[in-house]
């Protein structure tokens, strides 16, 4: 009973903070590229607030409609600021071949397709997932037909066709699939277990084109980001991979909440780019 009271009190406080945070503020009312925003709003707290404000006051209304639909009935996770983050990343970098490792009901890949349509981008959208309720050390999921659900959700927002592979990211078929192409953007959003995140990171890095983007989900737990009552800092596994390895090997572009954006910028002695 006491736990329920505390949870409801926190939810109420989170709603109040969310509403206050979503108000129009002239300091953030400027349309920037992702790179410009990360430079102008140089702390994680400021950049998150800019992205949250952008979503509510500057982004195309289609992004808000998309977010609202996936928020209903727990169709997707994430936060408002992430929709703005993806819009600004795709608008600035215009990736042609995009991959999500760990698709959950299609929120991100359908958002990419929606943004691509809004911006007139022509490219490929790929996803790898077991499309099952299989979880990990920190997550569990409902029992539904995830592949059918994902395709239906995708079709609601775009006439594009995603290329989806039903597999765990550590399966040989998935590893071969990732290694067979040169990617312009990869989003690591699968398992939260350290060893699997590290495997996903290593394979992604070797398969990214020079100048391509790598976005890591749930990875800001070790950073100086202080989550709001309606936001989340991340999980230990992805956060350790980002903090101890990825941030040391790639160029860090900016962090929006628990998402961290990196760029592959250089070539190592063995010929691989980082």
Would you list the SSEs in sequence order as H and E?
HHHHHEHEHEHEHEHEE
* Average pLDDT, all residues: 92
Taking the alpha carbons of the first and last residues, their distance comes to 52 Å
Name the CATH superfamily assignment: Vaccinia Virus protein VP39
Number of helices: 10
Q: Structural class of the secondary elements? A: alpha/beta
How would you write the strand order of the largest sheet? Answer: 3-2-1-4-5-7-6
Number of strands: 7
Work out the helicity level.
40-55%
Rg over CA atoms? 18 Å
Largest sheet: 7 strands, mixed
Which overall shape is indicated by the principal axes computed on the Cα atoms?
globular
Number of domains: 1
What is the CATH architecture assignment?
3-Layer(aba) Sandwich
Low-confidence stretches: none
- Strand proportion: 5-15%
CATH fold description: Rossmann fold
What is the CATH top level name?
Alpha Beta
Characterize this entry briefly.
The chain is α/β, with parallel strands linked by helices and 274 residues long. It has helices spanning 2-21, 34-40, 44-57, 61-71, 80-93, 107-119, 146-157, 172-179, 194-207, 236-249, and strands spanning 97-101, 124-129, 163-166, 183-188, 208-216, 251-256, 259-263. It contains ten helices and seven strands.
